[in-house]
Amino acid sequence: MPPRFREPALNALVRTVLSQHTSDANSDRAFEQLRRRFPRWDMVESATDAAVASAIRTAGLSNVKASRIRAMLAELHRRHGRPTLAPLARMRDVDAMEALLRLPGVGPKTAACVLLFGLGRDVFPVDTHIHRLCRRLGLVPPHATAERTQELMAGLVPRGRAHELHINLIRHGRRVCRARRPRCAECVLSPMCPSSVSTERDGVERLARGHGRRGAAYRRTSQR
User: Fold this and answer.
1) Could you point out which of 14, 82, 166, 205 has its C-alpha 20 to 30 Å from the C-alpha of 2?
2) DSSP 59
3) Residue 11: Cβ-neighbour burial (10 angstroms; 0-12, 13-18, 19+)
4) Rounded mean pLDDT of the chain?
5) Is pLDDT of 204 > 90?
6) Domain check: are 109 and 161 in the same one?
7) What is the mean pLDDT of residues 200-224?
8) Residues with catalytic annotation?
9) Which residue has the higher pLDDT, 168 or 218?
10) pLDDT at 197
């Protein structure tokens, strides 16, 4: 694993909003452009939606995201006298989560990302890729919502492993267990995955041919 990335909690909040429904490259570029144009968060708050949307256009849905970011900053200013999430550092996880969920437009995944990446808390966010993997692996019911999946996974993730598991599952979901045409033949988790036979185009025969190799690979990986 690479060293854990940490940044100010308010940066993590805005980054998470920008990352919705776009690529990491696009959202990172939008964040950099936003910070260049508005070096302080109070400048973003006092700007117009149109000006902020122009700065973050590469993230997509810029009008919606601009309005949401400015509404969050305004609420934080109302609470703390300036746009800041610094008070969260003194709160318990459950209280910090509740404080974030009271911000306009913030849901459980966004709040958990702020706690994980901005405050270094051992909290497990569930994004689209993780939600898909958890259902395919049978870790949660097949029709569980993303919010319910996050609730259930909180009790399954080993202590101290939330960051590592979050990053690895996202990587696995992007590269192997993709939404369309998942690459089950290359998946080290296929021996334990109840969805692998139904999603593998070549069916049981191909799965059986590779089962021994994939099973051995999974055992080696799990023992590291």
Assistant:
1) 14
2) G
3) middle
4) 87
5) no
6) no
7) 38
8) 109
9) 168
10) 56
Q: Tell me the per-residue pLDDT of 38-67, one tens digit each, with 9 for 90 and over.
A: 999 999 999 999 999 999 999 999 999 999
- Alpha helix (H) residue ranges in 20-145: 24-37, 41-46, 49-55, 62-80, 93-101, 108-113, 119, 128-136
User: Which residue range(s) make up the domain with 201?
Assistant: 181-224
Q: What is the model's pLDDT at position 196?
A: 79
What is the pTM (predicted TM-score) of this model? 0.82
Domain identity same for 137 and 54: no
Distance, in Å, from the CA atom of 18 to the CA atom of 11, rounded to the nearest integer, reads 11
State how far the alpha carbon of 23 is from the alpha carbons of 26, 57, 113, 209, in Å.
5, 13, 16, 36
3-state secondary structure of 36: helix
Output helix, strand, coil percentages for the chain, rounded to the nearest 5: 65, 0, 35
Whose tokens are 């609420």? That residue is: 75
Distance CA 45, CA 23 (A): 25
Query: Could you tell me the CATH number of the domain that includes residue 108?
Result: 1.10.340.30
Q: Which amino acid is at 100?
A: L
Residue 97: name the closest of 82, 83, 107 by CA: 107
Count up the domains in the chain and report the number.
3
